[in-house]
Amino acid sequence: MIKVTKNKHFIILQHSENEGERQNWYGLHKWNFFIEKNALWLQGRDLKKVNLTRKFKNISEMVQFTKEGEMITAVFFKI
């Protein structure tokens, strides 16, 4: 999504936390998104944890991320 987003535009992600694990990695539920250490993280069944906030820091800014119950919302701004 970041690659196809124009500069100075926003990317908004909204996911259930750890949905991949909860759904046994089935169908569209291939990844876990979660907040840890003040950052947004991604993990898959066959993928080690990736800090998305750090991974994309040179091309985007994490504007906001929130967790309400099981829902995570993350807002990135493409530089």
Pattern of helices and strands? EHEEEHEE
Global outline? globular
Adjacency order of strands in the biggest sheet: 1-6-5
Average per-residue pLDDT, rounded, comes to 95
Number of domains: 1
How would you characterize the largest beta sheet? Answer: 3 strands, antiparallel
Q: What is the CA–CA distance across the termini?
A: 13 Å
Query: Structural class per helix/strand content?
Result: mainly beta
Number of strands: 6
Number of helices: 2
> Which blocks of ≥5 consecutive residues have pLDDT under 50?
none
Strand content: over 45%
Determine the fraction of residues in helical runs and give it as a percent range. 10-25%
* Radius of gyration, whole Å: 13 Å
How would you describe the overall organization of this protein?
This protein is mainly beta and 79 residues long. The protein has one domain. Helices cover 10% and strands 52% of the residues. It is built from two helices and six strands. The chain has a three-stranded antiparallel beta sheet with strand order 1-6-5, with no helix packed on it. The chain has a three-stranded antiparallel beta sheet with strand order 2-3-4. The mean pLDDT is 95.
